[in-house]
Amino acid sequence: xxxxxxxxxxxxxxxxxxxxxxxxxxxxxxxxxxxxxxxxxxxxxxxxxxxxxxxxxxxxxxxxxxxxxxxxxxxxxxxxxxxxxxxxxxxxxxxxxxxxxxxxxxxxxxxxxxxxxxxxxxxxxxxxxxxxxxxxxxxxxxxxxxxxxxxxxxxxxxxxxxxxxxxxxxxxxxxxxxxxxxxxxxxxxxxxxxxxxxxxxxxxxxxxxxxxxxxxxxxxxxxxxxxxxxxxxxxxxxxxxxxxxxxxxxxxxxxxxxxxxxxxxxxxxxxxxxxxxxxxxxxxxxxxxxxxxxxxxxxxxxxxxxxxxxxxxxxxxxxx
Length: 320
Prior knowledge:
Shape: extended
Strand content: 5-15%
Number of strands: 9
Number of helices: 10
Distance between the termini: 120 Å
Order of helices and strands: HHHHHEEEHEHEHHEEHEE
């Protein structure tokens, strides 16, 4: 179609000059490039998969996210300073005021004599109830070896200070003897009914060897609670009278844990230093008597005494 006003068009071209013509040419070329890129992009987009419009949009969003993370660095290119975290506080710093007051009476790096340590333990108990005095003996043994897996039971001279309920799983004659010796529950039928109901209202269960087979089906319930009778702990025996008497008198059992440490409660704070000392000496003498022949050199690495929720007191290893 011919230009309706050719004279006017020529006038405009003349007014534009060389620079104007160059600008128009450049704009036209740029438009053509953009259109070519758009057509190429449209052609490269697939209906599904990694080249789909949705996938490409997600990729662009991820790239923008990474750019925002990079922009958080400082102008000098250094990373933003990290927030400082306070170091973990010690156990003493995290403890209550009563514990801190008790701990102040104990010299941290000092090893006390056995009697002095027991006297200090009775003074530093931070609780209002009659706390248990605990003895912790770290031995140089490896419990993975059978001969070094130290385990024993004996009667404390002054007892444990706890009242225990004793049940005896035995036939009629032995049950009668156990009841006479002070057993709280005795007999096969009575205890079986309790176990069937899941009731385990006793602290120690004694059984005769002939009746142990009947307790087999209750092993999963008794075992985790430490109530399953065991010959090594003296709860499987033909002399039920002796077992009941010792249990009532304060028989204790100990065994090294996986790290070779013996943990044992040996009385109450109300016992006083003299009675606690007698019990402690009996415990240490028993541990010494059970020293494995395969252990050469130093047998005891450390001894500590503490009360329930009380601070620890280091004892001289010569006490053993």
